[in-house]
Amino acid sequence: MTTSSAPVTSAVPADSPPPNRYASSPARPRVILWWGIGLLAGVALIGLIIALFGGAHGGTPPWQAIDQWWRDVIGGRPGDELLLVSQAFDWLGHAPGAFAPLLVPMAVLLVLRHWRSALYVLSSYILMSLLTQGVKKLVGRARPLDPLVDAGLLDFGSFPSGHAATIGMLLIVVAAVVTPSLWRKLWWVVGGLFVAGMLWQRIMVGAHWASDAVAGAAVGAAAALIAWYLFYPAIRRDFDRSRSVAAADAGSMSIAST
Fold it and tell me: What is residue 190's DSSP assignment?
């Protein structure tokens, strides 16, 4: 007995467009947003206390003794050799160095054709700058006396540190756009040391109190985290596109070798 089977036909019409692999947006992890909001809330609370204690008029917050202790412990002196090492960190806070944490990641991402991720970096930088300058103007904390850097390069307000905010932002944006996860874990270590170095530099040269430096890193990280939450689907689409292109290239090489 012979049996005949009907030909299997596809349910999708032959002239239908190919499915859009980027149509579905991945869910945004809310933990990123809550971390960003939490950091901002902490900075706002600290800034409010400084303002209430008259930070703009020489008043001191309740933790001023701790700030002074940190400055006494790691503060530099004129002619200190460590001042030469600290100049690299100081360069990142003034033009053109201040734009390096923005332009370098953007350039790399644009070369990789990750334009969505590059837009995320730009948005993080703008949000970080607005938040930092806004808090500086609202709190108006006086800087430490006799800094070891050119006072003419220091802007208004010691709280929060703009240098630290820039590096705090860089820590998060690189982690957000780096793949695979092994490189991201390595960056958390390297970037964390970079942030610690910037905090040390701002306190050592007397440009900021310790609480200003920590708050600056928190503002920068918060700005990048909030932007990461908003751009999360777009960044994932850049990742998916890279994987698709790599898989297609590998397939082409396999076919060519047979």
Answer: H
Task: Tell me the domains of the chain and their CATH numbers.
Answer: 30-56+78-241 (1.20.144)
**Is 225 in contact with 209 (CB distance < 8 Å)?**
no
Cβ-count burial of 58 within 10 angstroms (0-12 exposed, 13-18 middle, 19+ buried)?
Answer: exposed
Cα–Cα distance between 89 and 199 in angstroms, integer? 9
Asked if 163 and 198 count as a contact pair (C-beta separation under 8 A), the reply is: yes
pTM: 0.81
E strand or H helix at 209: none
Q: Name the residue among 56, 70, 209 with its Cα closest to residue 144.
A: 209
Asked whether the CA dihedral 81, 85, 88, 91 is positive or negative, the reply is negative
41 Cβ contact partners less than 8 Å away, ≥ 6 residues apart: none
Distances (CA, A) of 178 to 58, 170, 185: 43, 12, 10
By the 8 A CB rule, do 161 and 215 touch?
A: yes
> What tokens appear for 31 in the block?
């933990």
| pLDDT tens for each residue of 27-76 | 889 999 999 999 999 999 999 999 998 776 667 899 999 999 999 888 87
Tokens at 248, concatenated: 């297609």
Q: Distance between CA atoms of 22 and 26, rounded to whole angstroms?
A: 10
Q: How far apart are CA 124 and CA 110, in angstroms?
A: 16
